[in-house]
Amino acid sequence: MMTRAYQEIYVSKAQSALGDAFDYAVNDCSIPGNDFVKLFTASSMSKRMENGEPACLAGKSGIEVLLEELTVSVTKKTFKKGKTSQIKFSFPEGLYASDVKKVSYKSSKKKVVTVDKNGKVKALRKGKAVITVKVELDSGAVKKFNLKVNVGTRTVKVTKKK
Fold it and tell me: Based on the number of CB atoms within 10 Å of its own CB, is 60 exposed (0-12), middle (13-18) or buried (19 or more)?
């Protein structure tokens, strides 16, 4: 077991942030306390707090802590010209689509792929692009994601068995 030394102000902020997150999960989201503890312990946020990262505590509410656990992906990272893919969200327990105020999408190369307001990605021509997804919660908290996509032909190599 490793013993760590933290500044007193960090410990105070960590206790407050964790208390707020616990309160939000139990009272607003009706998550049983033991379940929250298990979810939090398994999260990347608990590791960041353990490592003493002050940025993970900077004035965050319970819902903003949950935002750290939100993941965004695209159904296909490589697809052919003319085909489509869909951006998908995976919400951690306690954070819901109804908590999201606004989602915006932007392609780094609009001649390669476009993204509509619903997260549908359309391949226009061969190349690589990055899709930036910006999620804003009702609380004002914002998180950005960068998804890499590749438009081209999928190559399948077949070898003869001797």
Answer: buried
Per DSSP, the residues of 33-49 read HHHHHHHHHHSHHHHHH
Distance CA 25, CA 45 (A): 15
Confidence (pTM):
0.62
As given in the structure block, the two tokens for residue 66 are 């949950």
Which of these three, 45, 67, 89, is where a domain ends?
67
Which residue has better confidence, 83 or 159? 83
What is the separation of C-alpha 104 from the centre of its chain, rounded to a whole number of angstroms?
14
pLDDT in tens, 60-111: 666 777 777 788 888 888 888 889 999 998 888 778 888 889 999 999 999 9
Q: Domain boundary at 46, 67, 88, which?
A: 67
Q: Which two tokens mark 140? A: 């004002």
Structure-token pair, residue 79? 């697809």
Any domain includes 60: yes
Beta bridge partner(s), residue 144 = 134
Q: How many domains does the chain have?
A: 2
Query: Does residue 12 sit in the same domain as residue 48?
Result: yes
SS3 state at 22: helix
